[in-house]
Write a structure and sequence with these properties.
This protein is elongated. With 160 residues, it is mostly helical. Helix 1 packs parallel to helix 3, helix 2 runs antiparallel to helix 3 and helix 3 runs antiparallel to helix 6. It contains seven helices and no strands.
């Protein structure tokens, strides 16, 4: 049941990306769509890894889940439109590294590569292919996710 729910969320996230892009949603819409898409991908991948660990993974489950992951990854770059200066100042905080926009071609290429790795995973042994999918995700996150370890700390005396 959980697997079907995660799959539904992943497919919805993959389908939502082009809609947000076409309708010109604001920065908050894009950020929310990116978060939803990444959460769906992580949910599917984690479920596959758990099922592999418990020896309950099936070939059809691998095929459907990795295709959903691939679809979400292929549409992901659509959620990074060129920032509009007037909207950028009002945009909510995001963990997307600003270099994504500077390197959008490389970022898009990495996203397509990750989608290909996910699709290939369905054709290989899960114990070999799932770690490759996870590694590809980690490579993108290392290069394009900004993490500020001080963001949650209070500034100044008494949290001011």
């Amino acid at each position: 049941m959980l697997h079907r729910t995660l799959l539904t969320v992943a497919v919805a996230a993959a389908l939502f990306a082009p809609v947000v892009a076409q309708e010109g949603g604001g920065p908050a819409d894009y950020i929310e769509a990116r978060k939803s898409s990444m959460q769906a991908i992580e949910g599917l991948l984690s479920q596959l890894e758990a099922d592999l660990a418990s020896a309950t993974i099936t070939g059809s489950q691998m095929a459907v889940s990795t295709e959903a992951i691939a679809a979400a990854l292929e549409t992901f770059p659509l959620l990074f439109p060129e920032p509009v200066a007037s909207e950028a100042a009002a945009a909510p905080p995001s963990s997307a590294d600003p270099k994504i926009w500077e390197e959008i071609v490389a970022f898009s290429s990495l996203s397509r590569t990750a989608a290909e790795v996910a699709r290939e995973a369905a054709k290989a042994r899960p114990e070999v292919s799932l770690p490759k999918v996870r590694e590809t995700c980690a490579t993108c996150h290392e290069g394009y996710v900004f993490y500020d370890p001080f963001a949650s700390m209070p500034i100044g005396p008494a949290g001011q």
